[in-house]
Amino acid sequence: GIQVEQSPPDLILQEGANSTLRCNFSDSVNNLQWFHQNPWGQLINLFYIPSGTKQNGRLSATTVATERYSLLYISSSQTTDSGVYFCAVGNDYKLSFGAGTTVTVRA
Amino acid sequence: SQTIHQWPATLVQPVGSPLSLECTVEGTSNPNLYWYRQAAGRGLQLLFYSVGIGQISSEVPQNLSASRPQDRQFILSSKKLLLSDSGFYLCAWSYNYNEQFFGPGTRLTVL
Hints:
The complex is a heterodimer of chains A (107) and B (111).
Chain A: E1 4-7, E2 10-14, E3 19-25, E4 31-37, E5 43-48, E6 52-56, E7 59-64, E8 69-74, E9 83-91, E10 94-97, E11 101-106
Parallel strand pairs in A: 2-11
Antiparallel strand pairs in A: 1-3, 3-8, 4-5, 4-9, 6-7, 7-8, 9-10, 9-11
Chain B: E1 3-7, E2 10-13, E3 19-26, E4 32-38, E5 44-52, E6 55-58, E7 65-70, E8 73-78, E9 87-94, E10 100-102, E11 106-110
Parallel strand pairs in B: 2-11
Antiparallel strand pairs in B: 1-3, 3-8, 4-5, 4-9, 5-6, 7-8, 9-10, 9-11
């Protein structure tokens, strides 16, 4: 199956800081999603981005499919941004998840 | 708009007991449906997916089974739970093979 590596595994930020999360994958894909898992376990869809660049408020994402990586940018971080961020990639029905990046934003 | 429901939210079951987790989707028809499991501190692993009523594909051989008795209902079952079945179970839906959307999950503890 497709291997997904996320980095860094843990990230501690001061409120207001910017950060970049990275997702590398081992094969070509036609589906790539970024999720935020809140403390209750709910997976919140952030981006569906198999290629290109998207922005939603303070978050943006870029996927370079030909080089098999995606980046998630968090700007002006807030304490509510804390949680685990997952990258998931795949083809057709199957999504393979990375191990996640745990983000802690301190006030 | 579409919504996805799972119940129960939490469940504590003894080893060897049966299991039935339910997932329903509202606001769409003929969705693809998925069951995932998340072990503590880990990413999600796809267990089953379904493209229609009665059509189930298994990704991982295990102690679990899935059924889809109605278009928007997906059920995860076990006849006899093992300790290793503990985890966080999430149901998801998608329209065709596009973006997947997840339910709130069920936390299962097998004692």
